[in-house]
Protein 1
Amino acid sequence: MKRIPYGHQWIDSGDIKAVVDTFKTGWLTQGPQIADFERALCRCTGAKYAVAVANGTAALHLACMAAGLKKGDEAITSPITFVASANCVLYCGAKPVFADIQDDTANIDPAEIIKHINNRTKALIPVHFAGHPCDMKEIAKIAKRHKLTVIEDAAHALGAEYRGTKIGSCKYSDMAILSFHPVKHITTGEGGAILTNRKDLYEKLSMLRTHGITKDPSKLERCDGPWYYEQHFLGFNYRITDFQSALGTSQLKKLDRFISLRRKISSAYDKAFKGTPAGFLAERSGAKSAKHIYVVRFDFSKARASKKDVFNFFLDNGIGVNLHYIPVYLQPYYRKLGYRKGSCPKAEKYYGEAITIPLFPSMTGAQASKVISTVKKASAKFFSKEK
Ligand SMILES: *Cc1c(COP(=O)(O)O)cnc(C)c1O
């Protein structure tokens, strides 16, 4: 039986044509499509500058470098995220610190952030989990008070809105990063971007993407001739290709439709699960979630079976469930660094309850109905009072 996946890309003939047309131009990398894609990302989010890179993790790494994170510094992020949101801090020799989540959205709690701030704290990395914007106004206030750089991990949140502004506009942050992995809102295969309104960060990020090299005459210390370039600091090759960027620009045209389809399916789920043992994440007022994933939450202490059994029930019934996320600090690598179980109780409780069910824009009505009926079947089988 082919399972309904938890997420899936949607590539149409327009996307394929955009990629093939790019091959015909002779450009494979560093051609005009990259700048086009960056301009389209700025138009779509309202950010002044965009730097497209090889993947979302590279975007996070460069953002942390541009923020000046180094050994002895700390950056606060959420435990309920993909490991990349914390690994990027380690790449810079700094220490990730995990602040517990809000129960209703599973987003980082500003009140918990405050508890972890000390004189080593340099940056905050809020993650808009499942596409729901974090409490950015509060986070920006904390950052201003303590002079911290804010990097939004918006990998889930392209197309989301917060208090009337688009996520990615960087109204409440210094930088925001995106990922274009196939399960995300738009895809380039692998790909990512950093958005910012600050020219200094934009210039730094552009150079970091290519080894810290510049050819800009106004920046050179000297000029030996037309071949000349200079490396000013240590960067990487984190470039994206021209044909990936063409795919990104083509996909971006469909973002609004993708988001509205996701929101439609998601509200059908909400409606169907209301009053059942399957809880779901809230959408707060002032926030428009991009609905990257749909998480149902069960209180397994009231179940007749373990979480593993319920999870397997979904898999056996053709529903490709997943789990987002294992609290990052519970990973063996982080445990070896000294992080301890029990440090974020709400995140651990959430981990015990959460199951991600399928949600993607090309889902058919029949697929959505099957997901709903299977959640209801699982609720009746494992959670009903009568035996
Ligand atoms: C996908 C993702 C990333 C990393 O993006 P890649 O493009 O896979 O490197 C970072 N943070 C979050 C929250 C993600 O979901």
Protein 2
Amino acid sequence: MNDLEPLHPTIAAFPIAGGSLLLGGIPLDQIAERVGETPFFAYDRRLISDRVALLRRHLPKAVALHYAIKANPMPALVQYLAGLVDGFDVASAGEMRVALDTALGPSVISFAGPGKTDKELVQAIAAGITIDIESPNEMRRIAEHARKAGKSPRVGVRINPDFEVKGSGMRMGGGAQQFGIDAEEVPATLRELRALGLEFAGFHIFAGSQNLRADILQEAQERAIELALSLAQHAACPMRYLNIGGGFGVPYFPKDSPLDLPAVGKNLADVIEHRLAPRFPDTRVIVELGRYIVSEAGVYVAKVVDRKTSRGQIFLVTDGGLHHQLAASGNFGQVIRRNYPVAIGNRMNERPSEIVNIVGRLCTPLDLLAYKVELPKAEIGDLVVVFQSGAYGLTASPVNFLSHPLPQEILV
Ligand SMILES: *Cc1c(COP(=O)(O)O)cnc(C)c1O
């Protein structure tokens, strides 16, 4: 064992017994038996709880922690998280239903996202959740529906900041965007909001996702808070919440190092204490996270159904593929294709002995789950595990492509 290469930190987070990966304390082959078929996704409760505990330890006490349901909307997982986080962020009526089915009340559910339909707005107003507006037209439609329903919804303004966050895997603020209201238009929007009789509840600033650099996140948080301070003076009522987004990244690839969470937490505590609290002592700061909470707790498991050699390269052909785990194939927003951490889940004690390509069963060369990775020799029937599959896995994949059945998902 001693001469084995150190495992990727994401793989090392899972215990091993008798050569098998354990999920929720259960050996992988037993989970596969219980599920009854491959491929499947499995999410480990303990790793999710550990991650939330880590966030609680390092983020300031006063900060509310919200889960962005789009990262993984599996109802059992969202129910589980309802007992751990302070609120949910939803981006559709479907996600709103999942959130409203939990014990967390509507007051801590907020709805952001461009293109909300009238039907969704009517449902959100009826449910009493907070709506973050993405445009002036959306604000006017909310006012109209609220008037018809005789309700007074809590409305937040999503700001498209006048700064950019470098180093994000996906930039969602700064420059021209479909998200939010340009910072310079916010004062006029707040005036109109008041004239329309809507109740201003707070600001939402989400600048980008998948950031592993603490220094950049710290700067983004500082700038978001400064921007909110300067714009809040244009609001008629006090800013009850300030959602500063999240963007905390996870290490997908071999050279990625985990985010320095203690540094981010400490800096945020300083900025809140010295900048925000003196002027807005009652404003609740919200951090909303998706992948940071669930990505590392999830695996995608597929069975090897064929092994073949083509011009010197070994291919492990699995019963899974990019129709379930698009991101691992490199086709979900990545510029350069890199391998997600993978393992042969029933040969965790064996030494890597061959270089293989792991492919899915779709008729496209894009369906590559791992390229030239060194693994123990796998046989037909072995279980390939793709890590970092707890977020943006199944629901971010083209599941109907090639008409294969949907995989199961379990929370263990
Ligand atoms: C997608 C999204 C998130 C979650 O992003 P992660 O990178 O998964 O943490 C948070 N807030 C908003 C507004 C989003 O659209």
